[in-house]
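re the bet — no i am not wrong, look at it urself. input seq straight from the record:
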Amino acid sequence: MSSEGDFPEDESIGAARRRTMTFAAQELRLISALVVLLAIGLFFALPFVLSIGSVVFLPLVAGLILTIILSPLADKMASWGVPNILASLLALLAFFAILALALTAVFTPAISLYDEVPAMITQVGEHFSELQMTFAWVAQLNEQLAALTGDKGTEVVLAGPTMLEQLALATPTVLLELLLTFMLAFFMIEARVRMRRRLLLDRQQVGASLKAARAMREVQDRVAAYIMTVGVINLGVGVVVALGAWAMGMDAPIMWGGLAALLNFIPYVGPLMMIVLLGLFGLGSADSVFVGLIPAAAYLGLHTVESNVVTPSVLGARFTMNPVAILLALAYFGWIWGVAGALLSVPILLTLAALIDHLGRPNFIGFIFGEPLFSTNILDMQAED
């Protein structure tokens, strides 16, 4: 008889437990909605803050990325018995030396070719005139459409600052940002051991310390390995382009190889810019349109093989990223910081992806249709209990 009397009490406990779980699920969904709204607001407000304070935020982000990339090299030097402060300085100087050599290889021949630019522009204009004569019917069609719509094609051109004036205005800011980047990167690389120890030992739970250690190692290994691997691939692309330019008799083949290697660090946009530059240079130095487009066509074939065969086979699935995410990162950080933001976009995206893999990947699409924002929720944890 006593066992039968326990059923109502068990049912009331079960009902109370279900109400508690339902309330917890509703509370979790409300908090998740607030987090999503805050994330959306931060996504749209952050560009204005970062662009206005680019003198501070750009060196900080660049220094953090350099710290992630160069910390393994500094650790390797430290394992050889080099003092930590000297290893940090040597790693940073090695990076800037390689960057300076690459920029010198590109800009020194470009300066010498500067005097030939007017003649190339004239040659390109002649080729376009020939093409315009070939497609004269298109121009006639446009004129007829303009006559029908009453558009007179009036265009107002405002005089702007010259290139030298823009360069003179931008130089102090660039030098300040480079100096801040160097100093921030040096101090963060030098303090990497203390930062790791503090991050690991100041956690109250062992599980949190292990998770933090795995997250740090994953971010460092993924970003550093990606930059090193892509750097080697881009160096090979630069060598092939330089040899091809030399074989075609183009001026300054080292410049074209260095430019191809540097622009290849910017996915999609960089190779497209390289194709445009090669096309304009070819049209400006060749006697016919067909011959002038050969360098651009050859580079397009090389890039097709490199981006679809070489790079995927070398990087593998670990570094595979969604092309839409890459383009959004390029547009987002390029809008904020220009060329520097475009160069930093992929390392930033890799860093965020590595952190999200450890903290939990949000399910935004499923959240709209009533699913939890993260794969683990309160209901699952209580069910396990």
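see?? Residues 153-160, 162-169, 377-385 have pLDDT under 50 and may be disordered. told u. also The chain has 16 helices and no strands. so pay up
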